[in-house]
Structures are given as structure tokens and as C-alpha cells.
Amino acid sequence: MAEAKRDYYEVLGIGRDADDAAIKKAYRVLAKKYHPDMNPGDKEAEKKFKEASEAYAVLSDPEKRRQYDQFGHAAFEGGAGGAGGFGGFDFNGADFSDIFGDIFGDLFGGGHRGGRANNGPMKGANIRKSIRITFEEAVFGCEKELDLILKDPCEDCNGTGAKPGTSPETCSKCGGRGQIVYTSQSFFGTVQNVQTCPACGGSGKAIKEKCPKCSGTGYTSSRKRIKVSIPAGIDNGQSVRIRDKGEPGLNGGPRGDLLVEVNVSRHPVFQRQDVHIFSTVPISFAVAALGGDVRIPTVDGDVIYTVKAGTKTDTKVRLKGKGVPSLRNSQVRGDHYVTLVIQTPERLSAEAKEALRRFDELTGNTLNQNIGGGEKEKKKKKGFMEKVKEAFEE
Ligand SMILES: [Zn+2]
Ligand SMILES: [Zn+2]
Q1: Cα 205 to ligand 2 centroid, rounded to whole Å
Q2: Cβ atoms of 161 and 204 closer than 8 Å
Q3: Which of 38, 215, 221, 306 is 20–30 Å from 148 (CA)?
Q4: Which ligand is nearest to the CA of 219?
């Protein structure tokens, strides 16, 4: 079982209502304390640093913070309980270079730190795809397949790009570092600019004789069919992460991930808001007045609902547990809210028209009956109620 993730607010030691400045301040303190450069070889510090960085990446992004507040960690996991295919946080989606530039730019006394060593093992890039599913598929979850072209390290050269029997040499332009530092003088002092080496593209290696199979790229591409498990309760615009189905890593690094954004089609009857479903059901005037059964479509199939006599138009009915499962816990479902709307008939047969006229006569709603007629009716009723009262008082 995976270790339970700590709450991001708890990690940063801030309240749920903390503003941007407070979030940044809290993270700076932790980052300074646990940064790997300050704690060489300390695994626990490294873990704490990553945890805090992840929390900061989410809470400093208004959209991510909103998702987190709503769904917790599940917002970034997609398929908790899936076949171990996903889980974890999309570091590539959060712009970490910005965060580090922002936080560490002044934390470590200025100077450009952009120097992540490019020739060490690096995780491959994430691939982003989107998929369209129906309203019901989003509610109950589904399995989808996605065809994509995936790169794999070339088998002939083991991804080096060098002809079998030869090996890549150190790039002479960058000395194998994969990047070139340009120093320039500016108004503010010496500025160092780090750029990826144009000769080797950052690999730090130079290939004299290219591998014929992959033309020196180190990769072969092939079409792959990937299974995507969409968890029940996913909402439009959320993504599912599939580990290790992204671009291959560099210099022995792990593969990137595949991030599948889910687009949910509109439903002709149901609307959704978070875990709740909304719909409108027409009822006839007769059913509204007399009471009766109406058929209400839900995502679980039709439900027969008994309308009470004397129901007014726009009456809201709550069908408990007929909404969308929560991403956090699919056993918990939202509700389905139905608005009952009384339909005014537009086309009537002569017989139906006559029946309605008769109805108005009987209920005293015609113009003639209303003049002077209403009062009499009330008196009659009052008389009856008084009789009832008398009966009880005895
Ligand atoms: Zn090759
Ligand atoms: Zn180079």
C-alpha cells in the first residue's frame, strides 16, 4: 500500500484561507531548510523538499488550488485504485522553472542557477492527448483505447544513436556538459546565460558513425494502443495520468507520462455541476392538481415519482444518491435535482376544451363567477371548518 499523501496545507503549515503571499512565504522557509544543496545526501530532507515543492506548485496555481480544494489529491491522480497505472503529481504541468526562478533566484543570493545538468539522467517529456467521452461514461467510468506513436530506445544501438560497435564521443563544443554558458556584462553586473549546446542538442555526446536503424536519433517509433481507465466521476477538462507512456528518458532517465485530458459531451437532458445532476421534467396540469405518477429519467434509468396533489410549477425534487460518484470515493454519490414544470396545453381537442371550461365553471374561475361569487365560497368553507372545530371541542 502506498503511503498516504499529506494534505498540502498541512505540508506548508498554512490555513485553508492562506493568500498567495502566505503560501509563498511558507514554502520559502521550508525550501530553504530542506533544499538538497543545503542537505547533501539527506534522503529525508529531500523527501520533505519534494513534498513542499509539490504542495507549493499546486497551491500557488489558482486553478490547481481550486481543483485540490474540491477533490483533494484525487484531482491530480485520475484513477485512484486503478491498475497501478497512475497516481502522483504532474510536475511537468506545473511550471517549476518559474517557481525555482522565482523562489531560488534570490534565495541563493542571485546569479542564474538555470544550470540543471543536461547530461545526467532525465525523465522523458510527458505526452498530452485528449479523449471524448459521453456524459454517462464520465458518471460511471469507462475503459478507452488510445492509438499513439510512441518512441522507444533503438534496439540496435541501445538508444545511443551510434553505429553498433562504435560508441558516442564527448561533444567537443560543450565538453560533454550539454550546455554552454555565455557571460555578458549588463547594467546590473555580470549575467550568465545558459543555453543548450547546439552541436549535441544537450546530450553532451557526439556521434561519428550513425546507427543505420535509427539514423542516429537513438529512437524508433511505433504505433501503440494504450488502454485508458477513466475513473467514475471524472469531470470535463480533468486529466488521467498513465505512467511511463510518455517520451523516453534521456541518458537512462525514466520515461515521461501520458496525460489524457477528458472532454465530456453535453447531455440532451442532464446537466452536471460537480457531483450533482440537474434536469427538468414536464408534468401535466391535471397531475399537478390531482397528484399522480411521473417518469423521471436518471443516469440509473427511469424512476417513477409520485407527485403530490397541489404541486406548483418549478417544484424541486431531490433524488438522493442519483448524482455523480465522487472521485475521492466512488461509493459516495451526489444527488439528482429535478424541476417539475407544469405544461400549459397548446393544442386541445374540442372535448378537452369543453372539459377545461367546465373545470373553470366548477372552480369559480370564470369572470362571471368571480364577481360576488368568491365570497360566498369562502363563507361556505368557513362554515364547514367551524363545524369541524365544534366537533373537536365537544
Ligand atoms: Zn539505433
Ligand atoms: Zn555539446
Answers
A1: 6
A2: no
A3: 215
A4: 1
Q: Do 238 and 320 reside in the same domain of the chain?
A: no
Residue that has been written with the C-alpha cell 447531455 in this structure = 267
For 260-301, write each residue's pLDDT tens digit. Answer: 999 999 999 999 999 999 999 999 999 999 999 999 999 999
Ligand 2 is an ion; its neighbours by CB within 5 Å are 171, 173-174, 197, 199-200
Domain boundary among 53, 83, 114: 114
Nearest-ligand number for the alpha carbon of 195: 2
Dist. CA 297–CA 253, nearest whole Å: 51
Domain assignment of residue 213, yes or no: no
Residue holding cell 363567477?
Answer: 369
Say how far apart CA 233 and CA 76 lie, in whole Å.
13
Range(s) of the domain holding residue 28: 1-114
144 and 254 housed in the same domain: yes
Alpha helices (H) in 72-205, listed in sequence order:
96-107, 135-140
Domain count, the chain: 4
Say how far apart CA 90 and CA 101 lie, in whole Å.
Answer: 19
Q: Are residues 235 and 311 in the same domain?
A: no
